[in-house]
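Encode chain A's predicted structure.
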Amino acid sequence: MAKQVKLAAERREATGRGAVRKLKARGIVPAVVYGGREKPQPVQLFRRDLATVLSHASGENILVELEIAGEGSTRMAMVQEVQHSPVGGEVLHVDFHAVSMDEKIEADIPIEASGTANGVKNFGGLLEQSLRELTVECLPRDLPDRISVDVSNLNIGDSIHVRDIKLPDGVSANVQGDLTVFSVLAPTVEEEPAAATEAAAAPEVITEKKPAEAEGAATAGGAAKAGTAPAKSK
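Encoded structure for chain A:
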């Protein structure tokens, strides 16, 4: 299941770049809680607390119980977006999406392969993953951290579709069941060029004779004709 953590927060009254710079100097990160039945609520978090939560998260979906000082109650929310500085990667801002524990939510869950496909291990095939995330619907408490799919029985030409995946209780897929998730492709073999059986015949080159050679050939031809004249009968 998705990790559920508690996170201390405070109301944030001041907004704007100047206020954000002052918060940053104090080690505080601005955030906003969207969704639910209430209007968006600006809050602020201590950077060290947020860093601890994010560093221990094993997946992209983090269910947070926000303890907002002065309210006497908590708000359940999911981390929707974390904005990082392009230089250094420091967290600049966080968006939370408020959820109700008794209302279903929709989320994209990472899919990972478990085991080694038989067609890959014994026949040199290639495992192809066509779907990296699966959109599911469930109550927040049932939200899986990731979906692991056993591919060890796949042979070359076999596939696993969304309808073949066994999801946890209370979780249903929100995509077409015939979508391919994993498949094993046949190995690609490059054909070696066939050895030539016969050498290609070189084209005959006819060169034009030089004038002197042509004249000599003509003279020799005339002499040959004179020497072969028939003998006179006695």
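The radius of gyration is 40 Å.
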